[in-house]
Amino acid sequence: MSIKLNSGYFMPHQAFGFWELTPEECEIAVEGAVAEGWRFFDFAAVYGNEEACGRALGKVLKAGKVKREELFILSKLWATDWHQVEAACDKSLKDLQLDYVDLYLVHSPVGIDEQAGKDALGRRIRAKVPNHVLWSKMEGLVHAGKVKSIGVSNWSVLQLTDAMNYAKIPPAVNQLEIHPTYNLDEYTQWCLSVGIAVMGYCTLGTGKPDLTLAPITAAAKKHGVSPHQVIIKWSIQKGYCPITKVLERPLMRSNRTLNFELTPEEVKAITALDGGLDMKVVKHDGEFSLPLYSRL
After folding, report:
1. Are 103 and 147 in contact (CB under 8 A)?
2. pTM score > 0.85 for this model?
3. Is 47 one of the catalytic residues?
4. CA distance 85 to 91
5. What is the pLDDT of residue 69?
């Protein structure tokens, strides 16, 4: 099962994440996930573990446990690298021991000038790189064969609609925080309607309350599955590509074992759990000193 991107490539409908994993955990995760059938890995330079992930990837590829063309690899450009897109991508490719990545995202909604320090109010200073200039550099990565598809993450609806006006290569993916209690339903469904695939991180929220809410536990009981599986299935049935991460093999396996279908009523009830910004897990407002997460 896969999602066809507007770039013409196909993206698996589930991704395995590596945020906050230590180098040792990265090796366990890559080897275990490959053995359990995972083929889509979600990496990022800012996670600080791409070199360890690259060693693990090299190990499984050299051992013949999987072929490179069977994998879908994603990496991301962080806020402090908006002025050096190609160099940042090259660094990720070197660390991951790859010639190309299948998908490269602009990870942050604004760029940061790391050399400028902070302003008088203690706020980090934005990079003087217009979004359209940044995007042309991202398109250059495609033309150079270093990246097959490009997209964004954490961008507002205004940023994304503007990008659709100037992009020669349109964003193929929009990666956002998506879980039952914070699901941006109107925005994400609009993305799908204009041909932009949606990926969701923090798929299980913080665990509570998402995993414990009545529509989710009731569906889990009815279908004989775990609340984790219900939320992952809900995300897939909404048309998204959810990202999850676990180190235990049984959970790696069960997160991919989704041999059931939620009813339209169950999907609707779970979507209705949206509690707004108060339920958001990752908030970068303080880091970027901007009110980035308006629902407008």
Report:
1. yes
2. yes
3. yes
4. 10
5. 97
Q: For residue range 41-96, what is the model confidence (pLDDT) as tens digits?
A: 999 999 999 999 999 999 999 999 999 999 999 999 999 999 999 999 999 999 99
Name the percent of the chain in helix, strand, coil, to the closest 5: 45, 15, 40
* Four-point Cα dihedral 50, 241, 165, 161, nearest 10: -110
CA-based nearest residue to 73, from 52, 90, 92: 92
Among candidates 85, 86, 18, which has minimal Cα distance to 57?
Answer: 18
Q: How far apart are CA 192 and CA 262, in angstroms?
A: 20
Tokens of 121: 């109010």
- β-strand partners of 42: 17, 74
pLDDT at 73: 98
Residue 296: pLDDT band (50, 70, 90) is very low
CATH dotted code for 2-288: 3.20.20.100
User: From the candidates 9, 47, 182, 201, which is the catalytic residue?
Assistant: 47
Which residues, 6 or more positions from 248, have their beta carbon under 8 angstroms from its beta carbon? none
Long-range contacts of 25-32 (CB under 8 A, 24+ apart): 25/247, 26/52, 26/53, 26/56, 27/52, 27/55, 27/56, 27/59, 28/247, 29/56, 29/245, 29/247, 30/56, 30/57, 30/59, 30/60, 31/56, 31/59, 31/60, 31/65, 32/247, 32/249, 32/252
Q: What are phi and psi of 187, to 5 degrees?
A: -65, -50
Is the CB of residue 239 less than 8 Å from the CB of residue 150? no
Whether the Cβ atoms of residue 56 and residue 26 lie closer than 8 Å to each other: yes
Burial class (CB in 10 A: 0-12, 13-18, 19+), 31: middle
